[in-house]
Structure prediction request, 144 residues.
Amino acid sequence: MIDIIRSALIVNAGRKAIACIFLACVTTIHAGEFITAEQESDKQAYRALVQSRINPIQINQIHQWELTLLDADGVPVENAEIAITGGMPAHNHGLPTAPRVTEELKPGVYLVEGMKFQMGGNWVVNFKITANDLTDTVTFNLSM
Ligand SMILES: [Cu+2]
Prediction:
């Protein structure tokens, strides 16, 4: 699926590839090159930017991400409730850890602790975001 998405329309080749099909945009992160990735939420309520605190991401290493949340007007989203899920769809398993947001570092910037990927392949990471009674989900695709 990742390859199909990537071959559709690559807007920004290089460190990240943003592909758009049927108006749904998917960002594929290549772990060895992962610095930051940006993605719009399903209902376009939020724009999320993730940054790994280690680069490149290593298999089996617990590490942290920073998640920056903006609303549709580009204003930082403060005091959001954020639930993190993910896994490998092709292998029918979830994340090996239960990553969670532990701190809002500054307005709209959240610290995610407990990220870990225990094998190479295609992963998804979902952030379910609730702020101001508005819930929306952002999905990142990782290839490692
Ligand atoms: Cu797997």
The chain has one domain: 34-143. The chain has one helix and eleven strands. The radius of gyration is 14 Å. The domain at 34-143 is CATH 2.60.40.1930 (Immunoglobulin-like).
